[in-house]
Fold these 2 entries.
Entry 1:
Amino acid sequence: MRKKIVAGNWKMNTTLQEGIALAKDLKAALAGKTVKCDVVVCTPFISVASVAKEVEGSIIGVGAEDCSAQEKGAYTGEVAANMIASTGAKYVILGHSERRQYHGENNALLIQKLQQALANGLTPIFCVGEVKEERESNTFKSVIEGQMAALYTLSAADFAKCVVAYEPVWAIGTGLTATSEQAQEVHAFIRKSIADHYDAKVAEETSILYGGSCKGSNAPELFAQPDIDGGLIGGAALKADTFMPIIEAWK
Ligand code: PGA
C-alpha cells in the first residue's frame, strides 16, 4: 500500500536556531504518539544537518527544499544532492512553484535535479500545479501533464522512488485551499496519467500529496479523498502546534 506522508516545507523562514527549536518541539510533540503517516520536515540548507542530527532516531525524516542539477564542482552557492544525503537527510523537494516562478526552473533542469537526487538515494518530492489563470482557463490538466513529463523521463523503477505533490499555485500561502473535490479531481487525474505512462501498479503505489493552505481544519477532509495521500505543508509547518493536527488527521 502506498505511504501516507505529511511533509513540512519551512521555506526561507527559520534561522539555524529557530529550525533546531522547531525540530525539538516537533520531536517532543510526537514522542510516545502513534502516528499513521510518515512525518518529514524539509528545511533551509543551513539547518538540514543540524535538524537531521536533532531528530536522529525519531520518526521524523528530514529533507532539503532543493538541490543542484550538478554533481559537484565550480558552482558557487549550489548544494549538491550528495551533500544533502551526507547529513542523513532522505528527501528533497524539487520543482516547487516558487523555484519555477522565481528561478525559472523548467523540465530540462528538473530532469537533471531528479537524476542527482535519485543517484544519491534521496526521495524527490516533486511538485506540480497550475497558476490561477490556468485554473480559470481550464487548461490546468495539460499544464500538470506537461510538468509530469519531467518525471516520465524516469524508468518505472526510479519513478517508484518519487513522491508527487499537487500544489495549485493559487492556493499556496493565500489561505485559499482547493476544495477537497477540486484536489481529488486533480489527484485522480495525476494517478491516471501515471498509469498511462507506466502501469496501474506503479500508479496505485505512488504517494500524491496535496499542498496549498493545508491546515489542521481542512486536512481531515482533504485526506479523506481516495487519491490524496497526505500533504506538503508550508505556513502550518512552522509551529509544532499547527503541524501536529495535520499529522493527526491520519487516524
Ligand atoms: P502553504 O505552502 O501551506 O503555506 O500554502 C505550501 C507549499 O508551498 O508547499
Entry 2:
Amino acid sequence: MPQTKRAKITAVGHFLPESRLTNHDLEQMVDTNDEWIRTRTGIEERRILKDKDKATAYMGIRAAEEALEQRGIDADEIDVIITGTVTPDYLFPASACLIQKAIGASNAYAFDLSAACSGFLFSLTTGANMIESGRAKKVLIIGADKMSSILDFTDRSTCILFGDGAGAVLLEASDDETGIVDYVHHTDGDTNNTLYQPAGGSLNPATIETVKEKKHYVRQDGRTVFKKATVGMADVSMEIMKRNDLSAEDIDWLVPHQANKRIIDATANRVGLPSKKVMLNIQKYGNTTSGTIPLCLYDWQDQLNKGDNLILASFGGGYTWGAIYLKWGIE
Ligand code: COA
C-alpha cells in the first residue's frame, strides 16, 4: 500500500478591517470599562468592517488573494474552497461561492462550513482529508466572520467580545513528514441554546417581531459557555497529545482559538506550556470566530520553523470543539 501523503499548509493570508473599536470606545456605548474587559477577557480592541457594502466574502477574498500571492500560484489551480463562517453574506449562496468567483478560481467547487468558533478547524480537516485521499491537489481553507453584523451594541455581555476578520491557508500534499498528523473533533448539541442566534433561520424566519425582540443577534449564557470552553479546549488538547505520545516539551506552539485569555491560559496550564509558546492576539482582534486561528498563524509565521510541532485547538457554539496536531511545513 502506498503511504498516504499528509496535507500541509503551504501559504497563509489574512484580512483585518482598518477600523478599530477600543475598550474606551465601548465605554461610550454601554455600561462597561476598559479594566473589566481586559481582566475578564484579555481584549483591548477589535476590528470592525464598517463599509455597508462589504461583508464576510470580501474579507475572505482579500485573505485568499494574499495566500495565493504568497504561494505564487493562479486561482484556477484551486480544486476546492471551504469557508468556515457563521456570518455568511447570505444564507445562500455560500460566501465560498462568492469568493470563488471573485478570485477567479474557475476550476474550484466551493461551500461554507458552519461550526461556529471551530469553523476553521473543521474546515481544515475536511480539506486535509480531500488532499490525503488524492481527490484534490490544492484546497483553500478560509475562516472569516463579520461578527459585528450579528452583535447587539447595547448588550455589554456580548458586544465587547467579538471582532471582524479573516484568514486563509492553502493546503497541498506534503512530500515529507510535515503536515497534518492527527485530529480529534467533538460535538455535543447545545439544546439549551446557551450560545446562538435565535432568528433568521428556518425555525424563526425574520419578522417585524423577531427584529423588535433583537433575535437576530448573538445570545449567550457567558458563564456556562466559559465553563464548557475551559474544560473542552484543555481536554481535547490533552487528548490529541496523549494519543500521539507528545509531552509539553515536544510542543513548539499552542495555537488556541481566541475567545477569552482566561480560557487560553487554562488550556496552556493544563498542557504545561509556558506563555511564550502560546499564540495570543486576542488583545488586538477580540474573538473573530472562524478567523482567530488562521490570524494567529499569519501573525506568527515568521517565527515558525519547518518541522515545528503545533497544536491547534478550539471550542465554540454547537457545541463544537477539537484539536489538530500538525508539523509546520513551510521553510
Ligand atoms: N462590563 C462590565 N460588567 C459586565 C460586563 C461588561 N461588559 N458584562 C457583564 N458584566 C457584569 C455582569 O452583569 C455580572 O454582574 P452581576 O454579578 O452584577 O450580575 C458580572 O459582570 C459578572 O458577569 P459574568 O457573566 O459572571 O462574568 P464572567 O466572569 O463570566 O465574564 C464573559 C463574562 C462573557 C467574559 C465570560 O463568561 C466568557 O468569556 N464566556 C465565554 C464566552 C465565549 O468565549 N464565547 C464564545 C465562544 S467560545
